[in-house]
Amino acid sequence: MAEAQPKNDAGTSIATQPPMVEVTGLTYTFQDYSTGISDITLDLPAGSRTLLIGANGAGKTTLLRLLAGKRLAPKNTIRIGGHDPFSHGLEGVTYLGLEWVLNPVVRRDIGVDELLASVGGNAFPERRDELVSVLDIDTSWRMHAVSDGERRRVQLAMGLLRPWRVLLLDEITVDLDVWTRAQFLGWLRREVERHPGRDEGLPPPTIVYATHILDHLAGWPTHLVHMHLGSVREWGPASRFLEDPEYYNQRVRADPALLAASGAGRVLAAQSSVRGHTGSDSPALSLLGASGNSRLGDLVLAWLRDDLGERGPRSQNRRGPEGLTYLVGGIGGYGQETWSKELEKKD
């Protein structure tokens, strides 16, 4: 089947855009010599919206923090917009992760207006007001007296207030209610499609988003990256995985365990009975999403099912837990490696 290429708002294939995020042979080892991620190679075009998929501990957070410059990667393994971010800086790259809400500073008696002003809210008043509206923020909130979900909204507004070219999101919507999350995902999609900076010749914004919550994401990603045990198993345009019947039906087979996990078995059995179909030719086999899961959701369930079967019990796994990415410098991490001026000039 001819592969449908993701399109931007102008109808141009995203595949024609040059890579915005390039990773080549990236391996990262923690200070205790346990492996964080190993031999990752991928490239994501400008204007893409990529979902980073994988079980807990698959390496998603470690990869995002390396892309964001929170950890120093081996030289020439990561390029953002064609440049090594560690020798050229990370202007226009925004990383938002879960750890922010634990910062004692944002749990003090301080107002939302003050926080937004501290990151340039007055310099971008229209963007500030748009984010306050989309995220349904009350600017009279005091940060010591809000819920974690409300605090998360403020983090998102602060992090996205200044224009960005590459946005790296790590489980950032986990605290949001269903409505706010849907509005926020819609805003992200519009932000990419309206292509701020087009008149200046800048590439469209690019998003890499790690999440386990797939609600409202059907049709949202242009690309998928499937991670397992610190490596990338497969990656590419979402259409390659979701619109190719041969691939999809092979991976999302009518596995009783998969159906039971989603609760789809009872729904599919009822539909099949009502329609008078039984056996392998039942149309129910093509309706694995009838429980409420999208095709994307069913594919992710199948990926994680297969990953678990291959991996076995976690006690047999000698990889370092991903929490280490926050706690230790790591080999090749900050404090362990510096570039000389000569190396910077050669890059």
Pick out its properties:
347 residues; alpha/beta; Rossmann fold; 2 domains; three-stranded antiparallel beta sheet; 13 helices; 9 strands; 16% strand; globular; disordered N terminus; disordered C terminus
Question: Which helices and strands appear, and what pairs or packs with what?
Answer:
Layout (H helix, E strand, L loop, with lengths): L18 E11 L5 E11 L3 E5 L6 H8 L10 E3 L4 H4 L4 E4 L15 H7 L6 H10 L13 H13 L5 E5 L7 H17 L11 E5 L12 E6 L2 E7 H5 L2 H7 L4 H7 L1 H12 L19 H17 L12 H4 L13 H6 L1
Parallel strand pairs: 3-7, 3-8, 5-6, 6-7
Antiparallel strand pairs: 1-2, 1-4, 8-9
GO molecular function: ATP binding; ATP hydrolysis activity
Pfam families: ABC_tran (PF00005)
Protein name: Ccr4-not complex subunit caf16
